[in-house]
Amino acid sequence: MYGSPRYRWLLIWWNSRPYSAVADPFKIVRVDPTEITHVTGRGPNPGRFQWQDLGNVQGGDWDQSDERVEDLPVVQALRQRFEDGTDWEDIEFIQHVLEQAERGHVIWRGCANEDDVWEACARVDRLYERIRDQGYRSKQELVQQEGLSPDKYADGDRFNCYDEVVVDVGRDGQFLFVDGRHRLAIAKILELEEIPVRISARHEQWQQIRETVAETPRSELSGEVEQHLDHPDLENLLERECSS
Questions:
Q1: Contact 28/173 with Cβ under 8 angstroms?
Q2: Mind listing the pLDDT tens digit for each residue in 168-214?
Q3: pTM passes above 0.85
Q4: What is the chain's Cα-based Rg?
Q5: Is 236 exposed, middle or buried (0-12, 13-18, 19+ CB in 10 A)?
């Protein structure tokens, strides 16, 4: 049941009731990484439960968090590595990871010992070089180019082809970081114009804007709503109106 199409449908239905303009939680949208400036307050560690939050709509002040993406230790570490050319062993974050691993604590990319840490650093180097040299490709593009199954449900790795940088959408349409900090940091460092992201949760006030766009002819939308019409999360609703 877990991860099956029926599981997906039930989870989306449960998380998004009682709304009618329900978004496809697996739809990948393109976003300028410079627009992802703050971390979601829907925590702690919302990325851990991202697959249980599919289609989630929540009220509250979780979208008002003042935690900045640039203040995340991993983002700072990658800037030191790829902008300043600092050796991994001289980066404070990596030193902290090593200290914690020695004490039996795993805090970064599953690193339980020193060898794990250096291998993880090497993987990040390779990720940076691949994106720099080959461009940023979505997981679905990688699946197609590498000849893998386009539907990983069939292969048991149920969500792999939807594994992108994950964001929430706040009440005013702002993108709030959830998961994928290494890829987001690299995209920012390389000053990429856009990257593929997957939306996890939406603020209920933003969902009301989606509902209004879905139910109201474009010519009758208020200026407050109309200012959001170029938002990536509204594209499918506008396409639906054009095709009807």
A1: no
A2: 999 999 999 999 999 999 999 999 999 999 999 999 999 999 999 99
A3: yes
A4: 19
A5: middle
